[in-house]
Design brief:
about 140 residues, 7-stranded mixed beta sheet, two-stranded antiparallel ribbon
Amino acid sequence: MPNFAEFEVANNSAVLKARPGTKIPEGIPHLRVSGIIDSGATRLVLPQSVAHHLQLVPSGKVRVVYADRRSKWRVKVQNVWLRLLGREGVSSAILEPDREDALIGAIVMEELDLLVDCTAQRLRPRDPKGIVAEIE
């Protein structure tokens, strides 16, 4: 059974243009999206309709390989601002034309320092106090 998470997405260009004191994301165009948590996937995948609504600009194409080994070329967008479990980040995303939900891959989880808790079947912060960066 897949695990889902609700999160907010916005165009980071709108975030950067917001007036000081603007509550993000409420003060800018944004969407609340449901996503499947998939540590076996690498990237953030969004329905094409989300990118259209947020006016995310295509930045190229990437080859996507599906679990059944099919591959397709898909549009990639940059500057996706997201908030998941109270943590914010900016990511690129791959667009899927026929998807209705998002896919939250390992790169997003790593960026936000979130772990998959298999026992509780949910995402959780590694440290509830904040993101931990490991530097050698």
